[in-house]
Amino acid sequence: MARVAIIGGGPAGYEAALVAAQLGADVTLIEATGAGGACVLSDCVPSKTFIAASSVLTEIHESSELGIGTKEATADPAAVNGRVRRLATQQSADIAQKLVNAGVDLVYGRAALRVDKGYNYVHELHIVPIEGEPYDTEADVVLLATGATPRTLTSAPVDGERILTWRQLYDLKELPEHLIVVGSGVTGAEFASAYLAMGSGVTLISSRDRVMPHEDAEAAETVGRVFVRRGMDVRNHSRAAAARRTDNGVEVELDDGTVIEGTHALICVGSIPNSDNLGLHAYGITVDEHGFIPVDKVSRTNVPGVYAAGDVTGVHALASVAAMQGRIAIWHALGEAVRPIKLAHVAANVFTDPELASVGVTQADVDSGKVDCRGVLLPFASNPRAKMVDRTEGFVKLFAWNSSGIVAGGVVVGSRASELITPIALAVEQRLTVEQVARTFTIYPSLSGSVAEAARQLMEF
Length: 461
Ligand SMILES: Cc1cc2nc3c(=O)[nH]c(=O)nc-3n(C[C@H](O)[C@H](O)[C@H](O)COP(=O)(O)OP(=O)(O)OC[C@H]3O[C@@H](n4cnc5c(N)ncnc54)[C@H](O)[C@@H]3O)c2cc1C
Ligand SMILES: NC(=O)c1ccc[n+]([C@@H]2O[C@H](COP(=O)([O-])OP(=O)(O)OC[C@H]3O[C@@H](n4cnc5c(N)ncnc54)[C@H](O)[C@@H]3O)[C@@H](O)[C@H]2O)c1
Prior knowledge:
The protein has about 450 residues and is an alpha/beta fold. It has helices at about 10-20, 35-40, 45-60, 75-100, 185-200, 215-230, 280-285, 320-335, 365, 385-390, 415-430, 435-440, 450-460, and strands at about 5, 25-30, 105-115, 125-130, 135-140, 140-145, 150, 165, 180, 200-205, 235, 240-245, 250-255, 260, 265, 270-275, 305-310, 350, 355-360, 375-380, 395-400, 405-415.
């Protein structure tokens, strides 16, 4: 029976463990904090649960045109944060139970590779459990799935009270009166959006010319305009040089010397891979200059029998990608037929309000001539359902290959973009033509009607 040891119990690690158990391996999963990893306990699940609450307030605040909204609705931060914590803990417990039921030996503690037998086709791990004595164990296959940690700035020391990482937000008893969010990547934009909806004053420090610089420009600009319309102070072309506590709160100093005062600062300047203290260097495992563990398309590191998956690889920091990398690693390691990971069709969603979802080729690819595609953008302002619910900010953008008319990608900005991207993702994955999408009956009136309409406009006669 193959012995599989997995370090880290986030989506990469626990999905891999379930596959390994299904294939009859002897599986040990070592996890430092809780099953589900940072994804479930401090990053993805808590943030989306918090956003679920903030979205309700947005719906109420933005419904005055319908004759039923009120600007007076407020949130109880302690109740919202309490629910966030409970839901995350419950989700972690569910995953732990699933692993145990599958026969996985779930060890709470920390693990690292031991160098002694590194090149003998048997790998040795040193495990320091939370309870009990440290011990060594052997494995035929090792998966490194240790995730990442919020990056901080030495000039902005976090204290968990006023200057915070996103993992410390849910301990706040009060809603920040004025939150300064440093960094306008996906994480910063999501929290800025959610706290604005909750009723905090929000200043967003964005180092580039727009929020979410890695997303489709028209989409990110649309979201940025909504932020400003709702009262967010968005500072483009600004970098935080330092943040410090004051008597009443915090001040964030920008590169140009401007000082912004607030009650709290949230540092969202990216993440650092958890590749230290795993014994990688001594084991001969390559780690790049940013701390990521390079892997190939079946999750192999440079050392035979040692695989890596998830955020620690720097491939694409999404739970869905981490889980797929983990599964692929185990299928490959245990000799199953496996398809290398295909990242071109990964659908992603930013849970701002409005949401921003995308899949497949990008506008930048089209504009640069990297791909030969045509595209169309349909604003929701002309969609009857969007008008009825008074959520007309946003659009559907669709791309098709010029040679075949097959759908190549798309972008949706809107209140349920995370759902609306699925028909486009399906078309991309299943190689449907714009004609096939356009001939599909959609509900009238519906936001998804815009997907079919965009496809119709891309048909060539
Ligand atoms: C705020 C935020 C929101 C996000 N929202 C989304 C979203 O909506 N959708 C989405 O798809 N993605 C989202 N992501 C990204 C997603 O959370 C990550 O891509 C995902 O968590 C990566 O999973 P992982 O298994 O690589 O690592 P993690 O989930 O980070 O798990 C790794 C685990 O390994 C443990 N570990 C580390 N070292 C050791 C050791 N030596 N021994 C034992 N255990 C160890 C860690 O404690 C951790 O629990 C979000 C990220 C952030 C920061
Ligand atoms: N909904 C989701 O699926 C979701 C949500 C959150 C994160 N994620 C994943 O996590 C990845 C990382 O996103 P992220 O936003 O955490 O990190 P990021 O690295 O993409 O963004 C950090 C931003 O902070 C800026 N920055 C750095 N130093 C700064 C300073 N001193 N002042 C002002 N700005 C500064 C950077 O220029 C950058 O734009 C995403 O690409 C995504 O894959 C996904």
